[in-house]
Design goal:
Layout lengths: L2 H10 L17 E2 L5 E5 L4 H6 L6 H12 L8 E4 L13 H18 L3 E5 L1 H7 L5 H4 L4 E3 L2 E6 L2 H6 L1 H12 L1 H6 L12 H7 L1
Parallel strand pairs: 2-3, 2-4, 4-6
Antiparallel strand pairs: 1-3, 5-6
């Protein structure tokens, strides 16, 4: 059994937060164990909860289309979420739920050792870019620790807001170039406190 399989088994049996009470299945993640690119979303939705796989609804179809547009399939990348069980009625995950799952995500990243992490939406973005706003840093790759992180809007946002669809598509097209230049990308510097206050 690989490390990712061990983590997945723990996630499927997890009772660390209240989300386990309402799940059909936990959704550990799926994809290549030695993927160069790891996508991290927010939380499972209805279809993910039913199938135990990430991004299998409408957002997943859009993600598949975007992967295809840069010559990739989901079998070549790894896809996971910040939270591994579906929040009731697809509400936002709570801080304590994110915290309960955080060690699982950390271990998945350590096991895969991706060159590039693509965050999908603000909750996964916040894991790497605390205090930042997705509207201001989407499409800008920056090094966080030993990995390059590339924040994008969540595919669901593009489906619900047509004005964002082209933004997501354009940001996605930069992924191959970012991956090729990963060793040259500068370290993330959080905005000065004055700018943080202005942003919020």
């Amino acid at each position: 059994m690989s490390e990712l399989e061990r983590i997945a088994a723990e996630i499927r049996a997890c009772t660390r937060c209240i989300l386990h009470r309402g799940r059909t299945q936990a959704v550990p993640g799926a994809g290549a164990e030695e993927a160069e690119i790891m996508f991290i979303g927010e939380a499972p939705g209805f279809h993910e909860d039913q199938q135990g796989l990430p991004f299998v609804g409408a957002s997943g179809k859009f993600l598949d289309d975007m992967l295809g547009s840069i010559g990739l399939s989901r079998e070549q990348v790894y896809i996971a979420n910040v939270v591994k069980c579906r929040p009731p009625a697809n509400r936002d995950p709570l801080p304590e739920e994110i915290a309960a799952c955080s060690s699982y995500l950390e271990r998945q990243i350590a096991a895969i050792k991706p060159l590039l992490i693509v965050t999908l939406g603000r909750f996964s973005m916040a894991r790497f870019f605390d205090k930042a706003r997705i509207s201001q840093i989407h499409g800008q790759a920056q090094r966080v620790g030993d990995v390059v992180c590339y924040p994008l809007y969540h595919p669901a946002a593009a489906l619900h807001q047509p004005s964002l669809r082209r933004v997501v598509e354009e940001d996605f097209q930069r992924i191959p170039k970012i991956l090729a230049q990963a060793d040259q990308i500068a370290k993330y510097e959080p905005p000065p406190q004055a700018e943080q206050l202005r942003l919020f």
